[in-house]
Amino acid sequence: MVERSELTNGIRVVSERMEGVPSATLGIWVENGSRDELRDQAGISHFLEHLLFKGTPTRSASQIAEEIDSVGGGINAFTGKECTCYYVRVLSEHLGMAADLLADIFTRSVFDPEEIERERGVVLQEISQGEDTPDEFIHDVFSAHYWRDHPLGSPICGTAQTVSALQRDDFTAFLAARYRPDRIVLAAAGNLHHRDLVDWAEREFGGLRGLSPAVEDRPPVTSHGLVTIDKALEQVHLCLGAPGVSHISEDRYAAHVLNTALGGGMSSRLFQEIREKRGRAYSVFSFLSCYRDTGYLGVYAGTSVEWVDEVLEIVARELRDVARNGLAPAELDRAKNQLKGGMLLGLETSDSRMTRVAKNEIYFGRHFSIDEVANRIDATTNEEVLSFAERLTASDSMALAVLGRVGTRDLGAGLLHAH
């Protein structure tokens, strides 16, 4: 059962009790991500996330790690384009200790200048590592092209230039402005009691006051066409996309069904055609990137330079086919069952349940039961899938990013003008 409370200062508390599960996961979610940053702040949300683990008045960075390791738990964080989350996962008997540790780093981090400089080097290495990992870097290349001149197009880690310029005052000012009660959701799942969670929240966070200043929030304007980066790599990495759905769109179920059938597993069209039948790629898949007001459906493939055109032609053909004919009845049923099965299997752990209740609160302001979602998946019609596919293949709607030894070749004509 999912329960929800709200503190007097506006902080939202949501939890799901899981009977018979030995663990509990607690997360502090802040509705602030890289899309909320100014151009010269790019990467500050992510850098700040790192710094909250570097010491408080009563715990050093090593003591934070030792304390959670001593009970066999885990503490971590991640920054996205729209949210930042700090979380702990422990055996439920240690939840009290872990919760106090999490509250300490969130509300009392000291931002020691020496620690900032050490961690700056870590973040710069993380940026370099991403650029040296082509199957990840291609997604940043695509986003920067597709959403140019908008924060959604910027990498979450920022750039070496922006990260190098950030100083202690920038972090403390950003924290004071953005980490306010109206942006905070405390979410938990596992073998726990909601009332205990609320009591802890009142004690640790009840004194927070103030509202976050408004941030300019506009949907991005998409850019279409081709962008290439010629680089000496063994493979050519492809990422292409077309307008998809937001987190809250009524079309999200049709989009997920189509994505599953197109490239969401080993039985999907792209995996079967490109890898199994032709051996033209080891990794090929489709995916949905969804945000609060926009999104895209993307396809990734890593292939040899001599097979690039063939891979792109297959993707174009499959997109055109589903836009004209939709999915066959058996294919539609298989995609639906795969979605439902994946959802249920993915919710066996307390950390996945914690994430689900948090995102439901952030994006919808209410809880969606598993049965409600499953029923809506089952109700998705072939006509809904076909209609969404038609939008994907609309003339001049697609963008393609290519990374590898491509020279000045003209790529993607069959995709970028799919009708």
Task: Describe it.
- By secondary structure, this protein is α+β, with helices and mostly antiparallel strands.
- Helix content is 45%, strand content 18%.
- It is built from 16 helices and eleven strands.
- The chain has helices spanning 44-51, 61-69, 95-108, 113-131, 134-146, 160-165, 168-178, 194-205, 252-263, 269-277, 308-325, 329-346, 350-364, 370-379, 382-392, 413-416, and strands at 2-6, 12-17, 23-30, 74-79, 84-91, 184-190, 225-230, 236-243, 284-290, 295-303, 399-404.
- The strands form two sheets. Strands 1-2-6-3-5-4 form a six-stranded mixed β-sheet, with helices on both faces.
- Strand 1 and strand 2 (12-17) form a beta hairpin.
- Helix 9 (252-263) crosses helix 15, helix 10 runs antiparallel to helix 11 and helix 11 (308-325) crosses helix 15.
Q: Which fold name fills CATH's third level, the topology of the largest domain?
A: Cytochrome Bc1 Complex, Chain A, domain 1
Number of domains: 2
Q: What's the pLDDT, averaged over the residues?
A: 95
Query: What sequence of helices (H) and strands (E) makes up the elements?
Result: EEEHHEEHHHHHEHEEHHEEHHHHHEH
CATH superfamily of the largest domain: Metalloenzyme, LuxS/M16 peptidase-like
Structural class: alpha+beta
For the record, give the distance between the C-alpha atoms at the N and C termini, rounded to a whole number: 48 Å
In spatial order, strands of the major sheet run 1-2-6-3-5-4
How helix-rich are the residues, as a percent range?
40-55%
Compute the number of helices. Answer: 16
